[in-house]
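Many introductory courses stop at the sequence. We go one step further.
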Amino acid sequence: MGIDEHAVGSALKKEKHLNFPVRDEVTGEIVSDPDGLPIAELEADDYFELADTLTIEERSQGERSWRFGHVIIDEAQDLTPMQWRMIGRRSRGHSMTIVGDVAQRTTGAAGSWDDLLPAEFGDVARFDLSTNYRSPEEVTPYAERVLAKLDPTLSQPVAIRSSGHRVEVRRVDDATAEAVLAARELVDLVDGGRVAILSVHQIEIDHPHIRVHTPGASKGMEFDGVVVVEPAEILEASHGLGLLYVAITRTTDRLVILHARELPDVLSD
């Protein structure tokens, strides 16, 4: 009668699960296998055997190569609770630099940093940016109105410079068609700089200096000139106010807003 190797292997694995890895009493890190051997001294095969008995969370806590001494997170306002949990597991001691703007949150429910950051992160040192290094002061009145509607507790950073060009708000018959013409004009006005068309619809244009993005996809970017197409349609999208705020604050120089539909009150003079 032959030996059932599968049954023997299952029995051994089950026996291993009766043992538990040893954790550091202070840090909670897994420091040795169930036999007391330090993880750092285990041979590769021994570690892989131990790994079979651990959950993903236990492996990430015990194997230092899975974790980082410091984690830098950009656009952090859009992380989900599960993503925060994943990052927390990969950060030793929760040492992090977290960068984000809750005004530009376009996922999940709105909230403050107190609402968004996991409680297990503990106390954080917070620094609020009060200076706007991207958008010129001509954009500020529009951004402030959108921000006030989005969250009255938030304040618009103060622009450090003026472009000397007022924001152009144009009523047109077809905002999508006019966007291409307006973008080409902006390329000349910004001396061949980068121009973006921001629209909820796909717009076809073949030009080396012009890009077409949705407002959400433009987050984190900046352009010399920006054409915002049909603000009313942007507001109708999920997280519309946040997307509109993103769209009008992408420019470093000139901003053109095109609308065939009624201009939303939040952008009206």
